[in-house]
Write a structure and sequence with these properties.
The complex is a heterodimer of chains A (316) and B (113).
Chain A: H1 6-18, H2 20-25, H3 33-49, H4 52-73, H5 78-119, H6 123-150, H7 158-204, H8 217-236, H9 242-283, H10 289-315
Helix pairs in contact in A: 1-7, 3-5, 3-9, 4-5, 4-8, 4-9, 5-7, 6-7, 6-10, 7-9, 7-10, 8-9
Chain B: H1 3-24, H2 31-110
Helix pairs in contact in B: 1-2
């Protein structure tokens, strides 16, 4: 094995690792616990949100179909009955498809929230910790092998190198995470506004005034359903089938639930928009005293992790 | 169709349907007239369905367009995640390279090189 000047090598490694540190630390923001907490809140708001607009369209589809089939049951001409039944089926199928498309479009919100959580996770610093430990162990093995080959007593320095890599590297990673989060959220905010506006626009078609935009699809179907029901009941003169009564009652229950769901979905999408706006605020560089303290704590956490790693390797 | 136009047509169609339905249930109506009113009702109902589907389709399409924009943001975040993963990988590669060197040097030593 060739002779190596371990003292020179050791000094070179420390120099390479320590010199960039001031450049990293000087005025550079790192990911703070409060930013991570805000990402978690946004992810929770997204979790609470899923599927609701699609469910509102499906609720309307069921009501609309019930109304059209009730109308079909009141028609006197066979061909007209068939035409109306087919119309009911076709419109139901189209609305169900639109419900599926709305749900699919919203899946990306989940993905965005999950990616923000990954971006702000401890995974990268933890992976670095494992890699730094591996590096420290490798260096110690190299020193042992050298001492064994040349009968020298060069002191192991793997623990020190690993702790520097973990400490400086950890702060560097937190800095990169902070920048990446800032960029992602800044770019995402406009699109979140676009998506939430599109969802609000969709839901308002189902809500009565003043929240609604005028279409009132659920209210209109309920009014027509009741008009048919009254007409059929008059014609039946006390012989209205129970099945018809049950169908109408179920349809009206469904209508109430769909309207309630539309209101809740509207509130949830507005909460999601607010949560993202708060997240954007948190990622901006100007810090309050509380946020500055939170940032210092992040630095301290990385240094503590580095010290813990050094102790572990020195004990081996 | 602009939204205000659609709303106006929807309102007119619904009012017409309501009037036709009331007329259909009139006990004085003859069978032939009833069938004609049914056909008119079906026509109006079809127009209403077309308006509803056109409207909801436009709204869902706007949501899908926003979703495509969000997918691009998500792709950028994935790249940033890969960059972060690469940091630990660099250190890992250094660790492995050192191990390989130690192995080679030990084997060379044992062969008397």
């Amino acid at each position: 094995m060739m002779r190596l000047n371990f003292r020179k090598l050791y000094r070179l490694i420390v120099l390479l690792l320590v010199v960039p540190s001031p450049l990293v630390l000087n005025g550079c923001a790192v990911l703070t616990k409060s930013q991570v907490a805000e990402v978690k809140k946004f992810a929770q708001a997204t979790d609470d949100y899923d599927d609701l607009p699609g469910a509102v369209i499906e609720g309307h589809a069921r009501l609309h179909r019930a109304r059209q089939l009730l109308a079909a049951s009141s028609l006197t001409d066979g061909q007209n009955v068939l035409t109306q039944t087919e119309q009911a089926r076709a419109t139901d199928a189209s609305l169900q498809q639109l419900a599926g498309r709305a749900d699919a479009a919203l899946d990306v919100l989940d993905e965005y929230a999950k990616l923000l959580k990954v971006l702000t996770s401890d995974k990268f610093a933890n992976d670095l910790g494992e890699s730094a430990e591996s590096l420290g162990t490798s260096l110690d093995s190299a020193v042992k092998a050298y001492n064994s080959a040349y009968g020298t007593q060069v002191q192991s320095f793997g623990g020190l190198v690993a702790s520097i890599v973990r400490g400086v590297g950890g702060i560097y990673i937190k800095h990169k995470q902070s920048k990446a989060l800032q960029t992602a959220v800044a770019n995402g905010d406009g699109v979140i506004a676009e998506m939430t506006a599109a969802v609000e626009n969709l839901l308002k078609a189902y809500l009565p005034k003043p929240a609604g935009s005028g279409e009132e699809y659920i209210k209109a179907d309920v009014a027509e359903l009741k008009q048919f029901y009254a007409g059929i009941a008059d014609t039946a003169a006390g012989h209205l089938p129970l099945a018809t009564v049950v169908t109408v009652a179920d349809a009206l229950d469904g209508a109430d639930q769909s309207e309630l769901l539309a209101k809740r979905s509207l509130a949830a999408v507005q909460a999601l928009r607010t949560a993202h706006a708060k997240l954007l605020e948190k990622t901006k560089t100007k810090l309050t005293l509380t946020e500055a303290i939170s940032e210092v704590r992040s630095y301290v956490d990385e240094v503590k992790a580095a010290q813990k790693l050094k102790k572990k390797l020195d004990a081996n | 169709m602009a939204n205000t136009e659609r709303l106006a047509v929807l309102k007119a169609v619904r009012e017409s349907k309501s009037a036709v339905t009331s007329a259909r249930f009139s006990p004085k109506l003859k069978a032939g007239a009833k069938v004609k009113l049914e056909k008119l009702y079906l026509l109006l109902d079809k127009v209403e369905d077309d308006l509803i589907l056109s409207d909801i389709t436009d709204r869902v399409a706007a949501l899908e367009a926003a979703s495509d924009d969000m997918a691009e943001i998500a792709a950028d975040i994935k790249k940033a995640v890969k960059d972060l993963e690469a940091i630990a990988e660099i250190v890992d590669k250094a660790a492995k390279a050192i191990k390989v060197l130690v192995d080679i040097a030990s084997k060379a030593g044992s062969l008397g090189l």
